[in-house]
């Protein structure tokens, strides 16, 4: 589906980016490439999506979005508004079981590419 | 070769989550901008209203098709079997009931026996010699209209006309 942002670059945390020297690809970037090339990233995305729908997380985020739309006005709201509004709550309200399952999968993958 | 880094797997998980958040936000944005959330509410409202209407319709205290004498339509109106609005015929000027207008027009405009006789009588004798029957029946020699068939027998020799509806209107 076109909406899946498999290849979206990682949301940057606040980082000290004052250095001008050319950066070697970070470990994260290397791993990301491996994730995408192997198709594991797509599988992980599907898994997370499924889990987050099951536990009602997606509906909660949808409700949050509707609240933002109501506040800002339907014509004025941007995707960025919505992303900024739901990211903190979204990250915080992931069920522990879902997080654990995903971390397990990721670590298994990391082990497999390390060899 | 590296030791499995917990921070790394956390970062990867966070990236996945951010992508999903963008998807959810994008979907909600689309729904909001297209006004589809309005439609969702409307649909629920319509479903509710139609369910209420159904309950009312099946309520035995209302007269419907199964109960009571009159047939009731969806607006709750009942109509008589024959339309009873009255207006003036644009051909002869008489006051006619709407439900009886079609048979009236048939006679008024020349399909019926009396109308044809009347039209025949009103033309000159010379015309009668060349056109058998009413002026209307001479339009096409090949027409299959009943008036044409009948006039071939002579305008005065028509027998056995039967009208399926009872009331003859005398011109």
How would you sum up this structure, described in words?
Chain B: Residues 116-171 are annotated as: Disordered. Chain B: It is found in: Nucleus. Chain B: Belongs to the SGF11 family. The complex is a heterodimer of chains A (115) and B (171). With 115 residues, chain A is an all-alpha fold. Helix content of chain A is 66%, strand content 0%. Chain A has helices at 27-38, 40-54, 57-72, 79-92, 96-114. In chain A, helix 2 runs antiparallel to helix 5 (96-114) and helix 3 (57-72) runs antiparallel to helix 4 (79-92). Chain B is mostly helical. Chain B is 48% helix and 4% strand. Chain B has six helices and two strands. In chain B, strands 1-2 form a two-stranded antiparallel ribbon. In chain B, strand 1 and strand 2 form a beta hairpin. Chain B starts with 5 loop residues before the first helix and ends in a 20-residue tail after the last helix. The A-B interface holds A 3-6, 8, 10-11, 27-28, 31-32, 35, 41, 44-45, 48-49, 52, 58, 61-62, 65-66, 69, 74-75, 77-79, 82-83, 85-87, 90-91, 94, 99, 102-103, 106-107, 110-111, 114 and B 1-2, 4-6, 8-29, 32-33, 35, 37.
Main attributes of the structure:
heterodimer, A: mainly alpha, globular, B: 171 residues, mainly alpha, 6 helices
Briefly say what this structure is.
Chain B: Belongs to the SGF11 family. Chain A contains five helices and no strands.
Provide the gyration radius of chain B in Å: 37 Å
**Poorly predicted runs of chain A:** none
- Described by the principal axes of the CA atoms, the overall outline of chain A is globular
The largest sheet of chain B has its strands arranged as: 1-2
How much of the polypeptide of chain A forms β-strand, as a percent range? under 5%
Query: Which class do the helix and strand fractions of chain B yield?
Result: mainly alpha
Query: For the residues shown, what is the average pLDDT of chain B?
Result: 71
Fraction in beta strands of chain B: under 5%
Name the poorly predicted regions of chain B: 143-166
- Derived structural class of chain A: mainly alpha
- Oligomeric grouping of the chains: heterodimer
Straight-line N-to-C gap of chain B: 112 Å
How many DSSP E strands of chain B?
2
Helix segment tally of chain A: 5
Q: How many strands, what sense, and barrel or not for the largest sheet of chain A?
A: none
InterPro entries (chain A): TF_ENY2 (IPR018783), TF_EnY2_sf (IPR038212)
Region (Disordered) (chain A): 1-23
Protein name (chain A): Transcription and mRNA export factor ENY2
Organism (chain A): Penstemon davidsonii
